[in-house]
Amino acid sequence: MLRFIIKRLLEAIPTLLALVTLSFFLMHFAPGSPFTSERGVPPAVLANLQAKYHMNESLMSQYFHYLWDLLHGNLGYSFRFTDFTINQLVAQSFPVSAEIGFWSFVVAVSIGVLCGVFAALRQNSLLDYGVMAFANIGMVLPNFVIAPLCILFFSIHYHWLPAGGWNGGAWPYLIMPVIAMSTSYIAQIARITRGSMIETMHSNFIRTARAKGLPKSHIIIRHALRPAMLPVVSYLGPAFVGIITGSVVVDQFFGTGGIGQHFVNGAINRDYSMVMGITILIGTLTILFNAIVDIVYVFIDPKIRY
Amino acid sequence: MKMTKTLLASAVIAASFTAMQVHAADVPAGVKLADKQELVKGGEGEPATLDPQKIQGTPGSLRAKDLFEGLYSEGEGGKLVPGVATGYTVNDDNTVYTFNLRHDAKWSDGTPVTANDFVYGFQRLVDPKTASVYSWYAALAGIINAQNIIDGKAKPADMGVKALDKYTFQVTLDHPVPYFVKMTVNSAMYPAPKKAIEKFGDNWTKPGNLVSNGAYKLDTWIVNEKMVFVRNHDYWNDKKTIINKVTVLPIKDSTVEFSRYQAGDLDVTSFSGIPTNRYKELLKTTPDEVKVTPQLAAYYYDFNNQKPPFDDVRVRKALSYAIDRTIITKYVTGVGEIPAYTFTPPSVDGFKAKQPEYAKWTQAERNAKAKELLKEAGYDKNNPLDFTLLYNTNDGHKKIAIAVASMWKKTLGVNATLENQEWKTFIDTRNLGNFGVARDGWVGDYNEASTFLDLFKSTNTSNNAHYNNPEYDGYMAQAAKAKDPAPFYQKAEDLVIDKDMAVAPIYQYSIKRLVKTYVGGYQPNLEDNIYTRDMYIIAH
């Protein structure tokens, strides 16, 4: 197991390096620069700005400069928020997204799995159709529709919840972002769980268990649930990263100050260091969660050994 | 001459009536104030910086107005209001300005604001080490050696600014600038706290480090969530300030801002806080909250003056005449925008541009003339004019582009293909001149015509129409030296629009803000210089 973990960590290095290199050059090929501004910047000022960010050097030299800083854990100065370093901005916004992401994940997994299992056990019943109809609606309703609907209902109409803000993650500020964030994931998880559960319930070992006369609840919990979770778990790794970093719509509608907004605005503003910083963060998280998923496999699938 | 007299007179008045004219919350008799004096306001996007010398754009400057105070501020209707300065004198040819500073102005760390803080701030603006994107502002004001310092040809110490004594600050210009005092309203010309800047370096604008001299000091700054200011009890006029806490929310999208205003999260929206599609409904449901006033800003289309067929004045005029500005402002934008036929908005202080001939015609007459001109230029139904109309990706710009393109098609048979590009790509394309017709807009930096007319000087980096006319440059050079620049501005305006139609003016922007009825002291002005220290919350 330890060997497996070390191997995965070592594999991550070239993957991340490739990611950094590719994003670095692709981004510099985009038209415009961080200093492109409506009020043309005078050449002397532009030269000073470029010097500050090493942009007066060749692209290769900038690249190695970036790698060197990166090795020291320094993600550089933001081009857009000139008073902040990327490290400061990430430190401010990542915990927000992580908290929204964590609760959305908990909600999505618990409700999603529950719905999926019940739908599978009552296949083709009214319950099944109801759950699946909800799942389909949840999937086609994007969060930029759910978010304003939530605000309209909970904040403007009933004044139950604040329409936005974060306030250090106080729970009234957390509810609507979590609803907006988790709905589509609940739907996805319910669908995957249902499919996989139906398949498992038709397999030979479940039939054997039934033949042995085990009680139904025992069969479901002890025997069916674990193998049925396999496809769900493999979906959850990348989904978790998506939930944490893909909060751009939630950030924009609820003004939470999460990291998703930085990513999109970074690209629009050509904030090179911001885009790089968040790309690296997402890359690292993706690798990390995929590795966690692989480890979790060992516990739920007896066929897997590392 | 008239201008100088007016200015001198205003200087005298300013000096003698200081106590009456300063910014402070004036609560009318009989108004009962709320117990909780806290204001939440819309702050447009998140500012790039809070460093006054580096601020570019309204998100930064609207916050800086609460945190810092310059020599002068702007009050209701755009009149100058003394800030740290109590008055000023100017020499006969408008090149040496001497400001008397109040003795009771203090930084939030309790130290006095002195003439040296202004000297340091001004020098810092042009110092290449600061790398300020707004350093050109000092050069524009004509301060001696400003340009040379920016170019690295002189040292910051050589700048034409000095402290005659602790409370007397003098600025020397290399050419007469009669409107210099108006320019001091901009955050670029605020004083700077040397001690804090040297101590904290790039981190000096963070909460806890930031030392400010305005009515408020920075308490919290969470990027993309909020900024919180609290009362600066060291502010010289603190006893006249009423609001204790200001929260500024960085919301760029007007729909999102509007929903938070509806939910009661915001008391005052940003200047673009009324979504176009809700305006009429708001006028019916909450007319007292709707505040729509003109803004010192122009919306226009650039013709690429160097590129055929737009190097032909007949083509430019035909396209400009065929735009029905009334339809655009009434039905497309529709929130208080004013149709524009001149480039300089008529509401600018000190110069009321004469309406050109085509402004007086009916739209039918303009259309007829447009057809005639385009035919003369060699374009008709058999040989239609084809080009691309470029705009930056935005729903509002798209609607206007569709309307204008259909007017051109209907009146002139012109085929304008719409092309949108995201912001930075758009700016790049426009700067490089790779366009035929492109959307443009300009917000005045100070309340004087040169902030608009300077744009068409051949050397101006924002001359996106690539207009190049030595005669025009000559008028602007003369205006810069003249004691009364208005006649030269008129000549310049006539030349660039009426005669050459370098760009097609479309409308003057408006400030469209929602203000809850319990917020008092809102004083709109052309440049949207709004200070929380003027405001108060009425018991509700």
Number of helices of chain A: 13
Distance between the termini of chain B: 51 Å
Radius of gyration of chain B: 24 Å
In what range is the share of β-strand residues of chain A?
A: under 5%
Strand order of the largest sheet of chain B: 12-16-11-15-13-14
Class derived from helix and strand content of chain B: alpha+beta
Q: In oligomeric terms, what are we looking at?
A: heterodimer
Rg of Cα set of chain A: 24 Å
Please, how many helices of chain B? Answer: 19
User: Residue-averaged pLDDT of chain B, rounded?
Assistant: 91
- Strand segment tally of chain A: 0
Proportion of residues in helical segments of chain A = over 70%
Q: Residue ranges of chain A: pLDDT <50 for 5 or more in a row?
A: none
Can you count the beta strands of chain B? 18
Give the DSSP E fraction of chain B (strand runs of 2 or more residues).
15-25%
Describe the structure concisely for a colleague.
The complex is a heterodimer of chains A (306) and B (540). Chain A contains 13 helices and no strands.
Description:
The complex is a heterodimer of chains A (306) and B (540). With 306 residues, chain A is mainly α. Chain A is 75% helix and 0% strand. In chain A, helix 4 packs antiparallel against helix 10. Chain A is globular and about 85 Å long. Chain A starts with a helix and ends in a 6-residue tail after the last helix. Chain B has 540 residues and is an alpha+beta fold. Chain B has 19 helices and 18 strands. Chain B is globular, with a radius of gyration of 24 Å. In chain B, helix 18 packs antiparallel against helix 19. In chain B, strand 6 and strand 7 form a beta hairpin. At the A-B interface, helix 2, helix 4, helix 6, helix 11 and helix 12 of A face helix 9 and helix 16 of B.
